[in-house]
Amino acid sequence: MKPKKPAGKAASRSFSIARKSVALTIAGSDPSGGAGLQADLKAFQQNGVYGMSVVTLLTVQNTVGVKRVEVMPVDLVAEQLECVLEDIPPLAIKTGALGSPAIVRAIAERLETYSGDLIVDPVLISKHGDLLGDGSMTAAYREHLFPIATLITPNRYEVEAILGRKLTDLDSFCQAADDLHQLGPKYVLIKAGVIDGDRQHILADDEHVTCIGVADVPGNHGHGAGCSLSATIAARLTLTSPKHPHALRVNSAVQGAISAVHTSLELSPPLGQGCRPVEHRVLHAGKNAGRAQ
């Protein structure tokens, strides 16, 4: 009896892998998998990017809420970062919840000479307005991380805390984006929330302020949406050619990420008893974010 041949042609398959596309997240852990470094790594993987992580804090949380937070010692965070950078340099780094001003300062000091793209998601206040960082954290971001960032991605509440004023309409958000740009980052992306029926994102650089609107997706979902957005932007930047103009690369990454996260909200899985997580498995989708003004 002749031996059976292996099914299929696995040995002859060809794969297209961007082997140099590496991204690093510096963030806290969400054991429920919806947000934090778990969401970031899913976004990296789904976009075909090799992902790494530096843990800044541990949380006890799920879709209902956060029950406990333990911030890592600053030297442990710094050693993790140094260990990764000296072995596998990433093309893009994104930061999430950092836990303390000392950690913010340590990260900024190490990344001051970093030549890749640095995406800073200043996790200070949740999308529901819950305080996650005090005034000392806001000051640390302004002084240390914003001046060296490629892009910052605050939500509306974080912008209000950083600038010390309320935002009321689209014009006030556009002015806020320009004011944040004056703090040093090359680009600013404000997650403004729902304005006049659309979910608005305001992107600013040293020449333009652009409003990118997508239809709102009603419902109790969106756990990890902000993390997934900034992580997807970071991932897509590692996949673009440095030969192209940087503004074009950033704009393309932002537009694609907004579209992908919008799709992930539309397809949010029925998981958990609280705010449902986004559907991370579609974060590779999306090319055009919709209505730019």
Give the topology, please:
Elements: E1 22-29, H1 36-46, E2 50-61, E3 66-71, H2 74-85, E4 92-95, H3 101-111, E5 117-120, H4 135-145, E6 151-152, H5 156-163, H6 170-181, E7 187-195, E8 198-204, E9 209-215, E10 221-223, H7 225-238, H8 246-266, E11 276-277, E12 291-292
Pathway: Cofactor biosynthesis; thiamine diphosphate biosynthesis
Protein name: hydroxymethylpyrimidine kinase
Keywords: Kinase, Transferase
Structure, explained:
The protein is α/β, with parallel strands linked by helices. The protein has one domain: Ribokinase (UDP-N-acetylmuramoyl-L-alanine:D-glutamate ligase, 3-Layer(aba) Sandwich), CATH 3.40.1190. It is built from eight helices and twelve strands. It has a ten-stranded mixed β-sheet with strand order 3-2-1-4-5-6-7-8-9-12. Strands 10-11 form a two-stranded parallel ribbon. It is globular, with a radius of gyration of 19 Å.
